[in-house]
Specification:
The chain is about 40% helix and about 15% strand. The protein has about 260 residues and is α/β, with parallel strands linked by helices. The protein has a six-stranded parallel beta sheet, sandwiched between helices. The longest helix is centred in the middle third of the chain and has 24 residues, at about 95-115. Its cofactor is Mg(2+).
């Protein structure tokens, strides 16, 4: 895969200018370790402009690039993006085919830059049902970035949380029957090891664009104590400014986890 486009990462001064107050310093941000995003509004963005829905999905890729960059600069450790859900198969075949071509198109352009900036790519979801070209592109990116230890970019592809939990339960019951696991030893932490996100800290912050206020079968187990931040901004219009505002508001919240 060849890199056909170079886009420099924002420097600190450029990031600071995205705040309404230019005196704001990103070093003062209480940055969450793990940010998850439901990237909603691509189709509506295109429809508002008299364009086919596919155009919105392609424009949304540009937003992914911007947000990965700002997340790296803000020292976010994990960024999980809801890219294609198990329910998205219900959409017209032409739209589904276009969405599932985007990972290859995105990675063919930006993978060298991601590698240069120490980003590690992983995928969560049931990859077996995806087209071969999608699986191969994602696996290639995973293999090429596996030694990187910077931001972990999780691409949620063919992901559905209920399916994930059921799959985890089936594997857990198999281990119980095979006496690889004792029922007395089973707890929340142990069950989490059967999920796609094993080894990852649960998201600290969930961002959903597009004006909807629901989880849409995304990380239901993992979001139990996550802070939510919703915006009416459609994903293709979601900017570094919006992302920084979400981080800023997160930093002002008190997380008590059921305590006082």
């Amino acid at each position: 895969m060849e890199n056909t486009l170079k886009i420099p990462f924002l420097n600190n001064k450029q990031i600071e200018k995205t705040f309404h107050n230019p005196e704001e310093d990103i070093s003062d941000l209480h940055t969450p370790d793990h940010v998850a995003i439901i990237m909603d509004g691509n189709g509506r963005w295109a429809g508002n402009r008299g364009m086919p829905r596919v155009a919105g999905h392609k424009e949304g890729v540009s937003t992914v690039v911007k947000i990965v960059k700002i997340a790296v600069k803000c020292k976010v450790k994990v960024l999980t993006l809801y890219t294609f859900s198990t329910e998205n198969w219900k959409r017209p075949k032409s739209e589904v085919d276009s969405i599932l071509r985007l990972p290859k198109e995105f990675l063919s352009i930006y993978l060298p830059e991601l590698i240069a900036n120490n980003v590690r790519i992983e995928a969560i979801g049931d990859m077996e049902d995806l087209p071969t070209h999608t699986r191969e592109a994602v696996q290639y990116a995973i293999d090429r970035t596996k030694v990187n230890d910077g931001l972990q970019l999780n691409i949620a592809l063919n992901y559905g949380s209920r399916h994930e939990i059921l799959k985890a339960m089936k594997k857990m019951f198999t281990d119980l029957n095979d006496e690889k696991l004792s029922l007395d030893d089973l707890d929340e932490q142990h069950f989490s090891k059967y999920l796609y996100t094993t080894g990852l800290k649960d998201p600290d912050l969930l961002i959903r664009t597009g004006g909807e206020k629901r989880l849409s079968n995304f990380l239901l187990w993992q979001l139990a104590y996550t802070e939510f931040w919703f915006t009416d901004v459609l994903w293709p219009d979601f900017s570094e400014t919006e992302f920084l505002h979400a981080l800023k508001e997160y930093g002002q919240r008190k997380r008590r986890y059921g305590g006082i």
